[in-house]
Amino acid sequence: MSTSPSMDPGIFTADPKAQFDAFLDEHRAALHDCLDGLSEPEARASLVPSRTTLLGLVKHATFVEKVWFDEALTRRSRQEIGIPTTPDESFILADGDTIAGVQAAYRRACAESRSRTEHLGLDDLVTGNRRGPLPLRWVYLHMLRELAQHCGHADILREQLLAARTTR
Fold first, then answer.
1. What share of the chain is helix, strand, coil (3-state, %, to 5)?
2. What is the pLDDT of residue 8?
3. Residue 93, exposed/middle/buried by CB under 10 A (0-12, 13-18, 19+)?
4. Domain span holding position 124
5. Which helix (H) or strand (E) holds 30?
6. Fewer beta carbons within 10 angstroms: which end of the chain, N or C?
7. Quick check: 105 pLDDT over 90?
8. DSSP state of 150
């Protein structure tokens, strides 16, 4: 998933939806790739008092994709989709969760999100969210904020994990 679409000079002249898509994909790739080169124990390492781990962040990002681009677009319930009821629960790691498995699930969720929005315009309404109808533009901005925040968390956690390797 490693790409940097915002560095493509063509993105400066692309239509606004293409720009949103490019920046979303850049953040998606950064979060996906935060697990690359880590061991399974490192990916599961708890470095803060919350449930936040690198593996949990990517698992949570999968949940967020499904909330905004499945539940909000298709109006299917979280139970129908097969995702947790609350965001906090989405960080919980199952014994069988692995880097490869969580990354694959995230890639699938992102691909499904792209597919569901490719024919929508930024002003099209998303009607399946508890807040009521929202324009896709709002959903995109919310997702960019969410992913940027979690990319920052991931950068710090990954930096701590890599630094710990040199002190062993």
1. 65, 0, 35
2. 65
3. middle
4. 5-166
5. helix 16-33
6. C
7. yes
8. H
State pLDDT tens for residues 142-160.
Answer: 999 999 999 999 999 999 9
Query: What CATH number has the domain bearing residue 90?
Result: 1.20.120.450
Beta strands in 5-126 (DSSP E): 125-126
Side chain identity, residue 98: T
Greatest extent of the chain over all pairs of C-alpha atoms, in Å:
53
Q: For residues 110 and 106, what is the distance between their CA atoms, to the nearest angstrom? A: 6
d(CA 126, CA 105) in angstroms, rounded, equals 23
Element (H, E) at 41: helix 40-44
The total domain count for the chain is 1
Q: Is the pLDDT of residue 85 over 60?
A: yes
Evaluate if residue 13 carries a pLDDT over 70: no
For 100, residues 6+ apart whose C-beta sits below 8 A from its C-beta are: none
Strand, helix or coil for residue 65: helix
* Better-scored residue on pLDDT, 129 or 38: 38
Structure tokens belonging to residue 128: 């399946």
Across 25-46, average pLDDT: 97
